[in-house]
Amino acid sequence: MERERNLRILVAKPGLDGHDRGARVIARAFRDAGFEVIYTGCHQTPEQIVSTAIQEDVDMIGLSILSGAHTYSFPRILELLKENSAEDITVIGGGIFPLEDIPKLKAMGIKEIFEPGAKLQEITAWVGENVKPREGIGA
Amino acid sequence: MNIAEQIVAGDVRATARLLRDIDDQIPSARDILKELYPHTGKAHVVGFTGSPGVGKSTLVDQIALRYRQDGLTVGILAVDPTSPFTGGAILGDRIRMQRHFLDSGVFIRSLATRGHFGGLTRSTNDMINVLDAMGKDMILVETVGVGQDEVEIANSAHTTVLVTVPGMGDEVQAIKAGIMEIGNIFVVNKADREGSRKTVRELRTLIELGLRRRVENGWEPLIVETEALKGRGLEELYSDIQKHREYLRANPQQLNEVLWKRARNQFVEALRDQTLRTILDRLNNRGVSLDALIKMIMNKEADPYSLVHEILNEELR
Ligand SMILES: Nc1nc2c(ncn2[C@@H]2O[C@H](COP(=O)(O)OP(=O)(O)OP(=O)(O)O)[C@@H](O)[C@H]2O)c(=O)[nH]1
Ligand SMILES: [Mg+2]
To answer: Alpha helices, DSSP H only, in chain B?
Structure first.
């Protein structure tokens, strides 16, 4: 009998800026692509994001960013994942980034960055191809 | 330490991963569940059910906070619907529970129904067992807000809290029609809204009219008004849940009834799931696919009843 795993994704919005329209849109696109999306709203600290990712056992964290909050939060999230032996969780970012930051973020371990022009289809297709549900534990 | 031992020791990562495997029906999860079962039976399970948007998550958040003040640890299972069209889901109950994200005494897991009806997921009972074995004192289960048939929770929880809001005349009718019987405690949330008292009166009338049997058993369903957003009425809800718990303790017969329902439900569920899976697996190993059987039925080459009969004769010999 088939036992196909569902991809589980955390969509979070670190930083202090107020609205989460972008995050909601991408959450909906992921749902429509057949993924299970844990959605936690705005104002998430890196600590909250990583703790949620671990409790929810997600395969990927999608971070939505508006205004420069990535310089602190992205490295901190990667660091916390490592501290919790959870660096197998893929992290991607979407939003507005200064051009020169993108290679730095990727070098750091952010798997992909999507800028505002990116099509939703492009993002969901990337996830479908690059993120795989993890193996079962035990036995 | 093996995985079961890690979970009993309270390991969050191991617990989270096992829950995933259970949800995905990975066979090895069953072996870990077997090991965990002897460690279950200590937690008190409280179910929160009611229509979409009535404030279940907000109430769970507040009541969890109250238990934390008592020094009790809390496990939360929050169910949201899977889209029948895409198989995907947006699980948003956590939005209301952010203050607990960094509290190691609270474990929150969001679950998608994945096509299961009744308000819970196929494996909610197994997950309750895992959180129980993990050592959580209180387990709070938020059902999906589907309307009238989220009655499954009553077979999983010790205490069932049915949440409604003022100004939903139809809502009270719906409660009367279907799910009145399962509520041990009724919450009228959003009591800041007009018509709260009226809703309380309507509920009280229904309880007095319709629930003679329950009252004879010594538990008269309690009604409490809350404003979950501001925490108003939460102390009362907390003490009502406490009262129900004490009532069960003081009435072994009632407690037995609850435990019996839970045990029966779990056994029958496990039996059904595993029998089905075992048989489909065996057929598969013999090169018979489910699709092929369905095709035979569709083409009227066979009828479903004879096929099942044959398969059972073959496999259960
Ligand atoms: N006015 C008022 N609004 C409330 C109260 N409690 C919750 N809400 C609001 O009602 C909305 C729904 O609350 P939730 O806690 O998400 O409701 P829910 O029953 O969990 O919803 P689903 O999980 O989608 O079925 C939110 O916008 C809350 O802020 C209350 O006491 N008064
Ligand atoms: Mg909710």
So the answer is: 3-8, 12-23, 27-36, 56-69, 124-134, 169-174, 196-210, 212-216, 234-250, 252-285, 290-298, 304-315
A63 domain-assigned: yes
Give the pLDDT confidence of B118-159 residue by residue, as tens digits. 788 888 999 999 999 999 999 999 998 766 566 788 889 999
Whole-angstrom distance, CA of residue A22 vs CA of residue A11: 10
Domain that holds residue A68: 8-130
Interface-testing mutation among A20, A51, A120, with chain B (most B C-beta atoms within 10 A): A51
**Torsions phi, psi for A68 (to 5 deg):** 70, 5
Nearest alpha-carbon partner for A5 in A125, A135, A139: A135
Helix, coil or strand: residue B236: helix
Phi-psi region of A95 (alpha: psi -120 to 50; beta: other; left: phi over 0): left
* Spatial contact of B151 and B118, defined as CB atoms under 8 Å apart: yes
pLDDT tens for each residue of A59-85: 999 998 876 667 788 999 999 999 999
Is this structure's pTM higher than 0.80?
yes
Give the domain CATH number at A50.
Answer: 3.40.50.280
The interface pTM score, or ipTM, of the predicted complex is 0.93
Number of domains chain A is built from: 1
Taking the CA of residue B58 as reference, the ligand 1 atom at the shortest distance is: 15
- What's the CATH fold of domain B40-250? Rossmann fold (3.40.50)
Residues in chain B: 317
- B88 and A36 within 8 Å at the Cβ level: the answer is yes
Q: Is residue A137 part of a domain?
A: no
Chain A neighbors of B127, CB-CB under 8 A: none
Q: Which residues of B217-248 are buried (b: 16+ CB within 10 A; e: fewer)?
A: eebebbbbbbbbeebebbeebbebbeebbebb
Q: Which structure tokens are listed for A129?
A: 């191809």
CB A66 within 8 A of CB A17: yes
How many residues are recorded in chain A?
139
